[in-house]
Amino acid sequence: MSIQDFGGGQTPEADVLVVTTNDVPGFHVQQVIGEVFGLTVRSRHLGSQIGAGLKSMIGGELKGLTKTLVETRNQAMERLVEQARARGANAVLMFRFDVAEAMEGAAEVCAYGTAVVIAPQS
Hints:
The protein contains three helices and four strands, in the order αββααββ. By secondary structure, it is α+β, with helices and mostly antiparallel strands.
């Protein structure tokens, strides 16, 4: 059984499995590499800020902001996987996101976890 047999991760080229759990059933941790993270800060353009301000007065989903946050989370996760791969990991355990306001209108998103090397249990 390989990581690809397990599901291979979130993208077709995924060679780094990312999970929110402390372990992966059927695998054992051979080596703990350490903390890895992917960080990005994004701001919305003026048009979406005006639209979001108007929408917040009447209620409903702020679709422009939702789209920006999804793209931002994806970029942070891609950077986390790149860092894990560069350090020799084939998995990231205990994956989490942290989101903060870096400044008004800008979101800081940090994806983090523990990079490890896992292998199938015998």
